[in-house]
Specification:
Number of helices: 4
Strand order of the largest sheet: 1-2
Order of helices and strands: HHEHEHEE
Distance between the termini: 23 Å
Helix content: 25-40%
Number of domains: 1
Radius of gyration: 13 Å
Bound molecules: zinc ion
């Protein structure tokens, strides 16, 4: 289930620049296990109420660079089945098919 409210945000230049800068800031490594990272996660999940608020969406303090495993754990929890090969949780917590790394 795509959450349309965030689509425009993730396509925005502001986010793409912020994301790239953040990845560089953490040297491209997952902040939890220090393997190569995969996705910039929002600690405070994006909602329709905060999607317009750069203090949430573009704030380094609210970002965390995670590898695929750590991101799946963050969104999937320990009690869920492992995510199948080729699937991952996107930044909205939606299950998506892997196409290419996001950068
Ligand atoms: Zn990790
Ligand atoms: Zn996330």
């Amino acid at each position: 289930m795509a959450r349309d409210f965030a689509k425009a945000f993730y396509n925005s230049k502001e986010w793409q620049h912020c994301r790239d800068a953040y990845i560089e800031h953490v040297h491209g490594l997952c902040e939890r296990c220090h393997r190569p990272g995969w996705i910039v996660h929002h600690k405070c999940y994006l909602t329709p109420a905060n999607i317009e608020d750069p203090d949430v969406t573009l704030n380094f303090d609210n970002l965390e660079y995670l590898c695929q495993d750590c991101h799946n754990l963050e969104h999937g929890g320990m009690d869920q089945k492992p995510v199948k090969d080729g699937l991952f949780f996107d930044e909205n917590g939606d299950l998506r098919q892997v196409k290419a790394p996001p950068f």
